[in-house]
Design goal:
The complex is a heterotrimer of chains A (162), B (101) and C (683). Chain B has 101 residues and is mainly α. Chain B contains 3 helices and no strands. Chain B has a single domain, classed as Helix Hairpins (Orthogonal Bundle). The longest helix of chain B is centred in the C-terminal third of the chain and has 31 residues. Chain C has 3 domains: 140 residues; 437 residues, no CATH class; 86 residues. Classes of the chains: A mainly alpha (162), B mainly alpha (101), C mainly alpha (683). Chains B and C meet through helix 1 of B and helix 26 of C.
Chain lengths: 162, 101, 683
Amino acid sequence: MDNVAFGLIVALTLGSAFVVVLSKQLLYSAIALLFTLFGIAGLYIFMWADFMAGVQIIVYIGGILVLLIFGIMLTNKISSVNISHTSLQKSVGAVIALGVLGLLIPMILNTSWYQLSSKEPSQTADSIGRLLMMEYLLPFEVASLLLLGALIGAAMLSRNTN
Amino acid sequence: MDSLQTYLFISAILFSLGLYGVITRRNGIAVLMGVELILNAANINFIAFARFGGMNFSGQVFALFVIIMAAAEAAVALAIIINVFNNLDTVNIDDAKELKL
Amino acid sequence: MTGDMLINYALGILFFPLISFIILIFVGKRLPRQGDIVAIGSILLTLILSLAMFGSMLLSKDPGFRHEASFTWMDLGDFKIKLGFLIDNITIIMLLVVSLISTMTHIFSTKYMEGDIRYSRYYAYLGLFTFSMNGIVLANNLISLYIFWELVGVSSYLLIGHWFEKDSAADASKKAFLTNRVGDIGFFIGLMLVFTALGTFNYAEIFEGVSRGNISGNLLTFAGIGLFMGAVGKSSQFPLHIWLPDAMEGPTPVSALMHAATMVAAGVYLSVRLFPLFTPEALLFIAYTGGFTAIFAATIAITQNDIKKVLAYSTVSQLGYMILAVGTGAYVAGFFHLVTHAMFKACLFYGSGSVIHAMHHALHNLKDHDTDPQDMRNMGGFKSKMPITYWTMLVATLAISGVPLFSGFLSKDAILAGTLSFASHHPQHFLLPVFGFSAALITAFYMFRLIFMTFHNQPKLPNVFNDIHESPKPMVFPLILLSSLCVFIFYTLPYFNPLSDHGWFMELIQAKDSMVPGNPSAKYIADGIHHSHTLTMVLSVLVAALGIFLSWAVYMKKIISADIWTKKMSIFYNLSLNKYYFDENYNKYLYQPFLRLANRVSYIDWDLYDKYFINGFGHVTKWLSFITGRTDYDGLDQTIVDGLGRSMGKFGSSLKEIQTGRLQNYMLFALFGVIIIIIFQSF
C-alpha cells in the first residue's frame, strides 16, 4: 500500500517536473510546478517531516508560486509567446543536464552512506523549534534580516521612479 | 522502497531537470521555476539525510532556511523581472544584454 | 783623406742639393729672390766638396784608389740587399764634372730664366737633378743605381716640361721619360738576370761572380745587352735617340746640364762601370750601336737649321763615340771623352743660350713674335755684337772638331785609336773605324757651319741685328770658364805635350781587366791602342782639317754652293732634314697600333667586362636582395609574424563569441567545467 502511494507521489513529482521544464506554455509550467511542489510535500511526509510538508505547502505553494503566477500575469505579452529556443542551446543543455545526472547517479550508487537507524518522531515541530531557538539562533536572526532586506529591496525595486 | 538512495535519486533527477530548465528556458520566470526545482531537490536531500541519519532535525531546520531563502529570492527576482519587463518590454532574458561588450 | 771623411763628403755632396730641392719646393716662392740663393749656395757647397775630393785624389796619386761603404737595406734572412757608396777615381771625376756643370747652370740661369713664372720651382728641380745624378755616380750596386736612374728620368721630365703650357714641351717631356722607360725595361731584365745568377747587386761581387764563371755564355751576353739597353735609352743611342732632339724644348741651361754633359753621360758611365762583365758579343753589340749612332746622328745634324737641334744631334753623335769606345775595349778613352765633351758641349749650349737670349730680346723690342729666335737662318754676323760668346764658342767648336791643342782632340784621338786597334785585330769589323772617322769629318763640318752661319757673313735680319748685344755677366762667366777648360793643358798636367794624352787623367784612370774569362786584358787593349796611335793622330787631323775646309768653303767663301748640292742630293737632304722620318715611322708602326690595342683592351674591360660582369654582379645582387626582401617582408613578416598576430586576433575574436552576454550560456560553461572537474576527480 505504502509503495503504491509512494510510487504515485514520485511519479507525480517527476512528471510534473518534466512538464515544468519542457512546456512551451508558461502557465502550464506554473501549474506543473504546483503539482511538483505538492508531490514534494508528499515525499516530505513519507520522510516523517510533516512540519516541513506543511511549511512547503503554505510558503512555497501559497507564497512563492502565487508570486510567480502574479509575475506571469504581469509580464504577459501577447506577442512574445514562447519563441522557440535555439536548438543548440537545448541540445547542449540536455547533454549537460544528462551529464550531471550521469555523474550523480554513479556517485549515489557507489557511496556507502553513513546511516543511522531512526524511529518515527512523535513531535517534529517541537524539535525544530527547539533547534531554531538554541543551536541555530544566529542563522534564524540572519534569516529575518535577510527577509527584511528582501522586503526593502523588492519594495524599492518596484517603486515608481518619476 | 523508501531507502535513502531512492530519495537521492529523486533529488538528482529533479536537480538535473531544474538545471536543464535554468540553462535552456528563455523566459525569465521559467528560469526562476527551474531554480525553484533545484532548491527543492536540495531540500529533499536535506530531509532525507535528516530521516536516515538518526532523525537529526538539523536537516529539517536547514530545509526551513532554504525555503526562507527561496521566498526572499523569489520576491526580489520577480521585482527585477517586472522592472526589466517595464523597461525593456520583454521578458526574454536574452534581450537583457546591455552589459555585454 | 781618410775613408770616413770621404764618405762624409760624399753624403754632403749627395744631400745638399736634395735639401735645396725640399726647401725650394715648399717655401721657394716666398723666399727673397725666389730662393735661388739657397740653390746656388747648396750647389757651391757641393762643388767645394767635390773639389776637395778631387784635390785629395790628385795628391794621393793612387790609380787603384777605391773606397766602399754600405749598409743593409733589406734583410729577409737568406735574402739581403745592401746599398752603399763606391768612391774611386772615376767617381770623384764624375762628381766634379756634375757639380761644376750644375754650378755653371745655376749661375747661368739667374739671368737666362730671369722673370720666369716658375723660377723657384726650376731651381728646386735642378737641385733634385743634381741629387739624382750624384746618386747614380756614387752607387756601388745596381739597385741604388736604378733608383737614382729613374729619379734622373723624373728630373728630366720635370725640367724639359718646364714650360708645360706649350704642347710641344709637354709632349717632349713625356717622350723623353717614356723612351727612357723603354730602355729601362732592358736594364731591368739584365739586372734580374744578373741577380738570379749571382744573387747580388753589388758591383764587386758581380764581377767576382763573373770571373768565377757563375754566369757565362749567352746568359751573360743577354744580361750585358739588357743592362746596356738602359744606356741606350738614357744616352739616346739608336734606336731610342728620338727624345733628345725634342728635349730641346726645355730651357737652354737645362739642355746644357742634362742633355749635354751629365744625364746623357749616365749611360756612358754605366757602360764604363759595367765594362768588366760584357762578353765579346755584348761588346760588339755595344760598339756597333755606338758607331752607327755616331755617324747617323751626324748626318742629320748637317741639315738642321735650329741652333739647338744641331747641338742636340751633335750630342747624340758624340755619345755614340763614347759608347763605341766602350765597345772596342778602350773604355777609359770613352770616359775621357765624356769629361771633355761635358766641358765643350756645355759651353756650346750656354753659347747658344746666350745667342737665343739676345735674339729674344731683339725680337721682343721689335714686337716680332713670328720669327724663330733659334733659327740660324735668321742670324749672321753676330761676331761683332757678341764677341765673348763668339770666341768661347769658337774654342769649344775647335775642341769638338778634334783640332790639336784642344781637349777634344786628345779624347777623340784615343777613341779612334781604339777603333783602329780593334779593327786591326778583328779585320771583319772594319766598319767601326769607318764610322768613327766619317763621323769626325761630318762633325767638324756641321759645327763650323753653325759658327759661320751664326757669327759670320752678313746679318740676315738687319733690324733685328741692330738690337743684338752681349749677354750679362752671369751668362758670360760660365762660357769663359768652360771654354778655358777645353784647352788641352788641363788634362795633360804635369806634361805639356799637346799631342799626347798622357797626364794626370790617364795616370789616375787606368783600365781594369774585363772579368769575363777569355776577354782581352786591359794591357792587351792598351798596347793595341798604343800601336795605332800615330796613324790615328794623322788620320784624325786630316779628317778634321778636311771638314773645316769644306765648311769654310760652303758657308764662308761660298765657293761650293749649298743650294746646288741640296738640290742634287735632295733625297738625302730631305731624309736628313726630316730625321730619316723616325718619329713618323715609330708613330705609324709602333704607337698607333699599340694605342689601337689599348683601345681594344679598354673596350673589353670597360664595355664588356664592366657592363656584363660587374654590372651583372650588381644585377644578381639586386635580384637576390629583392628575393630576400620578399621572403623577409612577405614571407616572414607578413605570413609568420603578422599572420600569427592576425590568427591570434581571429582566435580572440572567435573567443569573444563566448561572451554572449547571455546568462544561460555562462551557466552552461560553468556546469560543463564542473562536470569535467568531477570526471577528472573520480579518475
